[in-house]
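Submission sheet (multi-component)
Chains listed below:
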Amino acid sequence: MAYELDGQTIEHDEEGYLTDLTQWSEGMADILAKDEGIEMTDEHWEVVNFLREYYDEYQIAPAIRVLVKALKKTMGKEKGSNKYLYTLFPYGPAKQACKIAGLPKPTGCI
Amino acid sequence: MSEDMEEGGTVKKFMYMNRKAPYGTIYALEALEVVLIGAAFDQDVSLAFIDDGVFQLTKDQNTDDIGIKNFSPAFRALGDYDVTKLYVEKESLAERGLTQDDLMDLVWEDEDDDWAEKPSIIMVSRDEMKKVLGDQDVIMSF
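Outcome: structure written.
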């Protein structure tokens, strides 16, 4: 199973998560988002970039509750809420945003 | 467990005991994954590091030459998961020629105290560790 981008083949698992996260690019994010039925806005990018930085630092994709807490701390109460995240990523913020960010499925995503 | 939580919101003391070196077997990584998953259940979670398990917390781990992901940075995320008690047995460290200075500086941020950073690592003697283990409701050994 693979995506095609600029003539490159990019492998993914049975749920659509990238197999090799070094193959991620912004173009790849657009393809992943389209598959999820999401139109990327600045607000979406904010969360996706945040997740990539989080993964870079801790080597894990955060659970939703951890993501909310971290966003609340860095971006304030309005953006650090389940409601806000579900508005952006209606089928599960951690799951969808992590997929678009090229990260594995969050540990503790149940 | 889930019945207890639904009925009375009982919080149990969960201890995850880590006795093995971080790489070479899958135990350490699996334990950490279980901790992260279990953290969703709002229990009173703590971790113990005994025997070679203390190597899991050493700083500056580099796994480039063994082709395995260095997952030690994930220990720094435990505070975000409200896992804030990491008991390390002093004797196990000393027997391996290590001191607390060889371990990562792990902290958690206290949301109720203006995000003040507080240490997560609690150094205990073998005798103190026995008491900590005796106080638990559930112990899972890896």
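Remark: The beta strands of chain A are 2-5, 8-11.
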